[in-house]
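Action item from last week, closing it out:
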Amino acid sequence: ERNKTTLLALLNRLYPSSSFRRYCEATLQLFQAIKEVTGCSVIIDSSKSPQRITVLSKIVDLKVVHICRDFTGVLNSAKAFLAKDIKAGIETDNPPGRTWKVLTDWIFTNAVTELFCLGIDSEKVSYKNYVTMPELLNRIHPEIGNISADQTFSGDHMLAGNLIRLKKNIRINPDIGFRFHRLNSRQKKIARGIDRVFPFWN
């Protein structure tokens, strides 16, 4: 499901190979096990790999939510350094990303996501609206109940991902994603220029 498998994933979407079918079946068995153990009726796959769409579309009634975050915010997040700390939930060292590598990944991921969403129930929303408009969350995710701006929740059943999953009380904070303290002035200018070139992914 990495970027280098994009063409293979596209080919398997059209002409599934036997190994691809086995992989889909294994993924389905994983979801069934998660459902059985947790008792949850909704599983959110937030693996963020567009190639994953091909797998999921073969085994579940899939809806893709393509959350587009502006490049300035993505670059700021990528500039963080996180040292390996198993107890803190950091499985490996995460050094700061190189600006041009982050840019090419951002463009590639958004473009391939749009390609793989063709013919799939999907919706593209901006990150800014996603974290500032509770009514949008309620419309997109009616199965998880009403969400309000001052509501707290927990991610008890998250298997991996953002460190926020370890917190007992999580609150949507629309300010966090718009602080660019990790970027110097040159990086900010580059990032904001990129955002003007690609307004449809902001």
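Closing note: The chain is about 45% helix and 5% strand.
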